[in-house]
Write the structure tokens for this entry.
Amino acid sequence: MPFGATATSNACNWGRATWVDLDTLPAGAILRNGQIGGQGVADVAGRRAWKITSDWGQILLPLGSAMNGDPFAVEAEFYIPEEGGWERGAEMAVFTEVLGEPKAGMISHGIVFLVKEAPGKAPWFMWFEPEDRRTRNPYTGTVPGSLAGRWHTLRIEGSRSKKWFRGLLDGRPLVVSSGDYDLAGSRVSLGAGYGDTKPENVAWSNLRTFAGTPECQ
């Protein structure tokens, strides 16, 4: 469905969030390459946040309240710098796992929601399952307005039992999907585009995960 699709019901109660400020290295975090290099805490646009300075940087965190929620929701705030001449973006993946050694940083299962912009192009989003990345093209669409230079909220929500899923930017749905997604993973991954966005320096803060009531449909 296109941008501006129907938002979550007003009768919904998402309950109390599991909250991670990301102003320090969180407990239970796994870093891509198994080390702090390429990411860490920094002052970004008026707040302390988790800054990813490598386009291969990722931080994987426990899913918290969303792990057993049906429906569930995961959201975090991101900042893309105002730097011209390059493609740049921010990526969230939910219900993921690390394959093999933690230093590999590869993810499986779940859902990926990625927003991007590049010079001379309208900002766009991409939506797909991680294991499909090499075999099928993701679903894409445009994003209204530039993303760079201010904080935004990226959110993934859905229901295992009813098999609906949404990707939202700043509270407005960009994509609504249905299907039997593999939600066996236990983590959320935040990144700077997973190897295909430059410049890097994408920052994240205020990760929140929710378990909703049945009215959240």
About this structure: The radius of gyration is 16 Å.
